[in-house]
Amino acid sequence: MDEAQYLALVRHGESYANVEIAKASDGLYYAISGSDRDVGITPTGELDCMRAGTILARLFPRSFPISRIWNSEFRRIWQSSALIRGHLPYQVETVIDERLNKRSYGRFWNLTYEGVRVLHEHEDSIYKALGPLKYRPPEGENFYDLFERVDELMLTDLNQTAGNQLVVGHSAVLLAMQRRLEGLSDMEVVRQYEGIAIPNGYVMLYRRERTDQPWKRVHIADYLHGEAGGLPEAA
Predict the structure, then answer these.
(1) By C-alpha distance, which of 138, 153, 28 is closest to 96?
(2) What is the pLDDT of residue 3?
């Protein structure tokens, strides 16, 4: 590798499920569930993506382009990805990979915590005994299942792909990637996920000098000063 390589992570724009979940609710079911693959982004979510696209277009101009965008199979991801791509002055290969899908809650896909407590007392007791990391909903995944598939993607396909990479992803998936990239503890992933630590449309950036070196987080603001902006290799 003759030049540094960058990896950008972006959370999808605000979705209708994000709006629903943010409402205070003591009901048993969500009216709109984030587990529904067909849930799209809101007008505010479109603005989230346009802001992210503007930042990425400055960081990755035609002279130093993004070579591949990674998406999950969910509508809100490919909607966000399309809006971001629209700001880039070049074509980018897009890859859809199920390993980037949102964590599956299985049969509990549209239940609130109150719904699980009231309708599935036995499962609620198992959850309380195992904790949020180990508990696996019926036919769903626990956090370790998520970590395993995200790690597999990163250690094989993504780490072995040349050029600058962009992942447009779900909150839990991006936190699982930060776990690998920055050494977040397992419980810190859960804490940040439950605290919604990654805002919609938020851009994170990592750099490595060679493929045999680890990625290191860099501050985007350092590259956006001045008229042109852009990463060092794009000058």
Answers:
(1) 153
(2) 77
CATH of the domain at 227: 3.40.50.1240
Confidence of residue 2 (pLDDT cuts 50, 70, 90): low
Q: What b-and-e string marks burial along 49-75, b requiring 16 or more CB atoms within 10 Å of the CB? A: bbbbbebbbbbbbeebebebbbbbebb
Q: What are phi and psi of 87, to 5 degrees?
A: -90, -10
Yes or no: say if 9 and 70 are a contact pair by the CB < 8 Å rule: no
Supply the pLDDT for residue 85. Answer: 97
Structural domain containing residue 54: 5-23+41-104+141-234
Residue 30 lies in a domain: no
Q: What is the mean pLDDT of residues 206-225?
A: 88
Kindly state whether residue 10 falls inside one of the protein's structural domains: yes
